Amino acid sequence: MSTDTTRQSRGEREAPTWELRAVVERYDDAPDECTIYPAGVDEHKRMATWISATEPAFVELGAVR
Questions:
Q1: SS3 34
Q2: In whole angstroms, what is the distance from residue 36 CA to residue 25 CA?
Q3: Does residue 3 lie in a domain region?
Q4: Structural domain includes residue 9
Q5: 12-64 pLDDT, tens per residue?
Q6: Parallel, antiparallel, or unpaired for β 20-25 and 33-38?
Q7: Residue 62 or residue 5, greater confidence
Q8: pTM for the model
Q9: Omega before residue 56 within 30° of 0, cis
Q10: What are phi and psi of 9, to 5 degrees?
Q11: Among 21, 22, 30, 23, which residue's Cα sits nearest to residue 56?
Q12: 3-state SS class at 63
C-alpha cells in the first residue's frame, strides 16, 4: 500500500503557474479599470486570456499591506 497522499499521484495535474501583468487605465469621467493578463505571450493569446475589473472592485496594493 502506498503512503503517497499527493493528488498528483492519482492522475491529477499541477496547476500551471503564470507571471501576470496588471495595467490600470485611469479615467477622469469613468471608474478606473484594471486589466490582468499573462506576461510573455503573443498578442493573439493575450487577447484570449485576460480579465478586467472596474473600480472599486480592486484597490492599490499599498492599501492592503
A1: strand
A2: 11
A3: no
A4: no
A5: 788 878 799 999 999 999 999 999 999 988 888 888 999 999 999 988 888 88
A6: antiparallel
A7: 62
A8: 0.64
A9: yes
A10: -70, -15
A11: 30
A12: helix
> Sign of the C-alpha dihedral, residues 21, 29, 55, 65?
positive
Q: Which amino acid is at 5?
A: T
The total number of structural domains that make up the chain: 1
Query: Cα(19)–Cα(22) distance, rounded to whole angstroms?
Result: 10
C-alpha cell at 11: 492522475
4 within domain boundaries: no
Q: Name the residue range of residue 23's domain.
A: 17-63
Predicted local confidence at residue 58, as pLDDT: 87
Domain assignment of residue 27, yes or no: yes
Q: Take residue 49 and report the three cell numbers written for it.
A: 486570456
- pLDDT level of residue 8 (50, 70, 90 thresholds): low
Cβ count within 10 A of residue 49: 13
